[in-house]
């Protein structure tokens, strides 16, 4: 079976090929209800049509952006504003001076003439009644939403519960059974009279109703979970100024007039115009298809929703929201076609197809055997020519049993159980601070063999404070209890002002007023720590900012590893450049150093060596090190070209920032290593800082290797092959180094790799990895968009939790498959053998439908939603090519099937004698006992399936309330069927001895399970685990370690 599945039902978990998707669709057959079975499967035709529409729309947008600048458009637009523009009455009454359509036209057509005629950004702000400094007044939000619209995109209306009922009724076998039930009622009344003749047919109808109801409820709840998760995936937090205070709001709450702040990696949340900014560069490829970034300036101030900030920073005025934006119209096409199906969903469609074909063959055989025996019996009694309505009813009953066998045999619930399990896992992970963006990520995480993690914020707390500063040959320790006077006196007077200038002028952080009226520092943790240190020195941020005019800013990025700014000094002293960043890089660009008098003097080699030792000393104490430097720019050549100098800087200070390791990270790393997952740190920090933190986290071991990015970059393929297995830390790395490492691990070492990232430049590595993990707090929107999972709390412990849930999903589906295949085999064989030998089936159509519900929907609810346990992280990862139905599973399936068939066969053929049944109702009692025993065998086998290897199957049973609820409801309803619904289900009430016998025979499967688990299974030929290259010993496996 595995070879057949690999050939026809194998797809990549990430970006599967069109051919693979079409191949498995062609291979699927015997689908009872295509509408339900393929509800979570991508519609390739719809997707192709959506792609075509999207390309047409992008081309239109591209034409609008790049071709529409012809003079005619400008003339027409100008004429339209001056002559024809009329303010809508509802807008006028609301107190605004411009309508939504006019605002949308100006920005989308990039119409500078209309923009200027309306008074530029100040004029537009006035017309939408907003202050460019204080922003929107909160009480105006609902009014603005009524006039200008909501920042939400059109979505398909959610499907109601009755739609799921209707979908469940499309099951072909259920339709056939309903027809059979109708015929049975008509024929039954004709032969047996009212109401006795209608009971058999009504029993089938009642069971169908129950199956449809339970199926619809389960599917409807799943759809609600996916809807909530989908909304959360699209939610973006944006920074705005409202009522004079900086605050974070959801993208859905954004209104026209909001003042929005943009920085590298952000998605532009709505159409708008630039208020102010530095070096703002926008990637419009998602909207127009053009890969060339666009520079946004006062001469080209238009920003379009859905585009990405590639460089720089800025502040914008929102002019158009929601479906009035081009992005809104484009988003409608993005949701068409659905998400790619996961590898497990595809594989289980294959399993369902194979079992379905076998079930169909047994169904036809059973019908033929029952019919032939019936005809032979009539012939032997000389009644072959005499036919009555009763005979027709018998044949109809045989047909109903055959159809019901198909209902039981075709495991429609297998692929849907994957969806159920994934939905449950995604919901639980959401509450555990992990947002799963792609379904397949839940599965793949269980196979991860290598995690490449960032340091800052993931392994550390990201709560940074300046701990030490070195300046003028002296190291000063910064302690919270020391006063600002002490710090001022510790730093030489001539250096003090320069230090403050370099902190306050060259910063990506801001001091803003919060809702509580207090000043807060906003920015990245590193920027915040440095600015808070400047404020600790007792100076006013705004006063220093006003001393100079900022001419140009080069924001920090992970390639340059520095931030630079060019300012014009207020005292007519020309221009000055400040830079700060990675200590080695800044030190290399310095040729001078500041002395205690505040004068620059040449930097000697001896001083350079001394400063390098200081940097290394700070780094060995696990401090992040940065250097601050400046350069006075004489003349106008540099300024005129608007370029910031790259070298000949004067060093001011070395700063050491403390960022403690997160609590629980060391234990999480230890758990990963015990689970066969190698953890590698990839950071842009100093190598000594990285090594100190890696040792503290338990990542860097005695035999491990720590190298720098430039060394890794220059390695030959052969050197990489020797180095990567021992590599545990890579410092001073670029995003491209991370991408190269991930590619090598995946392609050369065949590892399943998870990688973390937060910056825009991390997007290629996140895209390349098997699992891309973006940071929810520090991560940019570009990083999140390219990730499979967003770690909402930026914590490594959460990553380990995602791994645990990934393993749980895979194991849970295996448990369910083991349980369902056992029921399939027993139901098929029991009815077939009985039909061959006795000419009747012991289980009726109604009973088989009830068994199908236990096996399908309720079984999936019980087994596919079990939470993970600690034992999962003591076994190796699931291999990329591991056999899904393992030999251990086959051992359990075959063993349990043999036990159940023996028990049920003995009851069928020797039951009356063994149970001492006599009288007219002996056969009815025996058939009820067989049915009852069969159901209890499944109940106890469901408990057995909780653990496929370990003997103690009751461990953690009370942690899964859903499992307990399913067990209790199954037993309760079975009791009702037997004791009270006998008329419909062909059962009779049983005494307590027969109830006890049924339960004990079912419980016997627990003892059989213990015996089976003691039988050793050779796993040598199964691709059970992925080969490791991390130097760790292979993990033990088996019943004791499962």
Task: Write a concise synopsis of the structure shown.
Helices cover 52% and strands 14% of the residues. With 1042 residues, the chain is α+β, with helices and mostly antiparallel strands. The longest helix is centred in the C-terminal third of the chain and has 43 residues, at 796-838.
Silhouette? elongated
Overall number of structural domains: 4
Percent of residues in helices comes to 40-55%
Rg value: 36 Å
Q: What's the architecture of the largest domain, going by CATH?
A: Up-down Bundle
Number of helices: 40
Strand content: 5-15%
Main beta sheet strand tally, sense and closure: 9 strands, mixed
Describe, in plain words, how this protein is organized in 3D.
Helices cover 52% and strands 14% of the residues. With 1042 residues, the chain is α+β, with helices and mostly antiparallel strands. It folds into 4 domains: 85-151 and 254-335, Calcium-transporting ATPase, cytoplasmic transduction domain A (Distorted Sandwich), CATH 2.70.150; 343-424 and 803-1020, Calcium-transporting ATPase, transmembrane domain, CATH 1.20.1110.10; 439-460 and 662-794, HAD superfamily/HAD-like (Rossmann fold, 3-Layer(aba) Sandwich), CATH 3.40.50.1000; 465-658, 3-Layer(aba) Sandwich (Calcium-transporting ATPase, cytoplasmic domain N), CATH 3.40.1110. The strands form 4 sheets. Strands 10, 11, 14, 15, 16, 17, 18, 19 and 20 form a 9-stranded mixed β-sheet that branches. It has an 8-stranded mixed β-sheet with strand order 8-26-25-24-9-21-23-22, sandwiched between helices. A hairpin with a 5-residue loop joins strand 12 and strand 13 (519-522). The radius of gyration is 36 Å and the shape is elongated. The two termini are 25 Å apart. Mean pLDDT is 83; it is low at 69-83 and 1023-1042.
């Amino acid at each position: 079976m595995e070879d057949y599945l690999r050939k026809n039902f194998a797809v990549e978990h990430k970006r599967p090929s069109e051919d693979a998707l079409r191949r498995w669709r062609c291979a699927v057959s015997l689908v009872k209800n295509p509408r339900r079975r393929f509800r979570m499967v991508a519609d390739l035709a719809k997707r192709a049509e959506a792609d075509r529409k999207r390309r047409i729309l992008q081309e239109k947008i591209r034409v609008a952006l790049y071709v529409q600048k012809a003079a005619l458009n400008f003339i027409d637009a100008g004429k339209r504003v001056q002559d024809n523009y009329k303010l809508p009455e509802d807008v006028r009454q609301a107190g605004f001076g411009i309508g939504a359509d006019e605002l949308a036209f100006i920005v989308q057509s990039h119409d500078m003439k209309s923009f200027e005629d309306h008074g530029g950004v100040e004029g537009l702000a006035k017309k939408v009644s907003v202050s460019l400094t204080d922003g929107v007044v909160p009480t105006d939000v609902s009014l603005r939403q009524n006039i200008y619209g909501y920042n939400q995109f059109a979505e398909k209306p959610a499907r109601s519960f009755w739609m799921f009922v209707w979908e469940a009724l499309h099951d072909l076998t259920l339709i056939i059974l309903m027809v059979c039930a109708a015929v049975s009622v008509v024929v039954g009344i004709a032969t047996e009279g009212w109401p006795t003749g209608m009971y058999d047919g009504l029993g089938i109808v009642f069971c169908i109703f129950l199956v449809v109801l339970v199926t619809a409820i389960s599917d409807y709840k799943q759809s609600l979970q996916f809807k909530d998760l989908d909304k959360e995936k699209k939610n973006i937090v944006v920074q705005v100024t409202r009522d004079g205070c900086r605050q974070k709001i959801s993208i859905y709450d954004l209104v026209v007039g909001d003042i929005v702040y943009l920085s590298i990696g952000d998605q532009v949340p709505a159409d708008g115009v630039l208020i102010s900014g530095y070096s703002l560069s926008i990637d419009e490829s998602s909207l127009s298809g053009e890969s060339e970034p666009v520079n946004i300036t006062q001469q080209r101030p238009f920003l379009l929703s859905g585009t990405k900030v590639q460089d720089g920073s800025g502040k914008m005025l929102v002019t158009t929201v929601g479906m009035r934006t081009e992005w809104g119209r484009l988003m409608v096409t993005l949701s068409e076609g659905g998400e790619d199906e996961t590898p497990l969903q595809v594989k289980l469609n294959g399993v369902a197809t194979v079992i379905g074909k076998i079930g169909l063959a047994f169904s036809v055989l059973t019908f033929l055997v029952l019919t032939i025996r019936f005809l032979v019996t009539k012939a032997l009694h000389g009644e072959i020519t005499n036919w009555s309505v009763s005979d027709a009813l018998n044949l109809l009953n045989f047909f109903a049993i055959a159809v019901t066998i198909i209902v039981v045999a075709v495991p429609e619930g297998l692929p849907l159980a994957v969806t159920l399990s994934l939905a449950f896992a995604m919901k639980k992970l959401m509450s555990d601070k992990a947002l799963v963006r792609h379904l397949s990520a839940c599965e793949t995480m269980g196979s991860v063999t290598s995690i490449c993690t960032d340091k800052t914020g993931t392994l550390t707390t990201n709560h940074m404070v300046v701990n030490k500063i070195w300046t003028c040959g002296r190291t000063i320790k910064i302690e919270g209890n020391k006063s600002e006077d002490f710090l001022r006196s510790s730093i030489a007077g001539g250096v003090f002002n320069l230090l403050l200038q370099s902190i306050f002028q060259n910063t990506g952080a801001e001091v803003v007023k919060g809702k509580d009226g207090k000043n807060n520092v906003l920015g990245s943790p590193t920027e915040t720590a440095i600015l808070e240190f400047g404020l600790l020195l007792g100076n006013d941020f705004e006063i220093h900012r006003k001393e100079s005019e900022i001419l140009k800013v080069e924001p920090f990025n992970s390639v340059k590893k520095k931030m630079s700014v060019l300012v014009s000094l207020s005292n007519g002293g020309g221009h000055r450049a400040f830079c700060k960043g990675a200590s080695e890089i800044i030190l290399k660009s310095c040729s001078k150093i500041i002395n205690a008098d505040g004068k620059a003097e040449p930097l000697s080699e001896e001083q350079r060596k001394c400063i390098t030792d200081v940097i290394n000393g700070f780094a060995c104490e696990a401090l992040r090190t940065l250097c601050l430097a400046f350069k006075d720019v004489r003349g106008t050549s540099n300024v005129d070209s608007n370029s910031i100098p790259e070298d000949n800087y004067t060093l001011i200070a070395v700063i050491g920032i403390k960022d403690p390791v997160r609590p629980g990270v060391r234990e999480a790393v230890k758990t990963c290593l015990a689970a066969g997952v190698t953890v590698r740190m990839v950071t842009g920090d100093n190598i000594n800082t990285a090594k100190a933190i890696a040792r503290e986290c338990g990542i860097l071991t005695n035999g491990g290797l720590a190298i720098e990015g430039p060394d890794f970059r220059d390695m030959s393929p052969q050197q990489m092959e020797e180095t990567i297995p021992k590599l545990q830390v890579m410092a001073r790395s670029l995003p491209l180094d991370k991408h190269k490492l991930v590619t090598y691990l995946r392609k050369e070492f065949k590892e399943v790799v998870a990688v973390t990232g937060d910056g825009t430049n991390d997007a290629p590595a996140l895209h390349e990895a098997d699992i891309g993990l973006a940071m929810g707090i520090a991560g940019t929107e570009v990083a999140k968009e390219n990730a499979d999972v967003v770690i909402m709390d930026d914590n490594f412990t959460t990553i380990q939790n995602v791994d645990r849930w990934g393993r749980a999903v895979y194991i849970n589906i295996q448990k369910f498959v083991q349980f369902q295949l056992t029921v399939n085999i027993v139901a098929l064989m029991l009815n077939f053998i009985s039909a061959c030998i006795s000419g009747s089936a012991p289980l009726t159509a109604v009973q088989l439908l009830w068994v199908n519900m236990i096996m399908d929907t309720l079984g999936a609810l019980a087994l596919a939603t079990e939470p993970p346990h600690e034992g999962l992280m003591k076994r190796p990862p699931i291999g990329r090519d591991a056999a899904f139905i393992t030999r251990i599973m086959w051992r359990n399936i075959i063993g349990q099937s043999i036990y159940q068939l023996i028990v049920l066969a003995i009851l069928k053929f020797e039951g009356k004698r063994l149970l001492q049944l006599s009288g007219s109702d002996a056969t009815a009692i025996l058939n009820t006992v067989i049915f009852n025993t069969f159901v209890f065998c499944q109940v106890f086998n469901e408990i057995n399936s909780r653990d496929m290897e370990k003997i103690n199957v009751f461990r953690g049973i009370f942690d899964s309330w859903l499992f307990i609820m399913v067990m209790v409801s199954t037993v309760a309803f079975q009791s009702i069927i037997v004791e009270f619904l006998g008329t419909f289900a062909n059962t009779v009430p049983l005494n307590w001895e027969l109830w006890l016998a049924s339960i004990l025979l079912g419980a016997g499967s627990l003892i059989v399970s213990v015996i089976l688990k003691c039988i050793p299974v050779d796993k040598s030929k199964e691709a059970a685990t992925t080969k490791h290259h991390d130097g760790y010993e292979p993990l033990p496996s088996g019943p004791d370690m499962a």
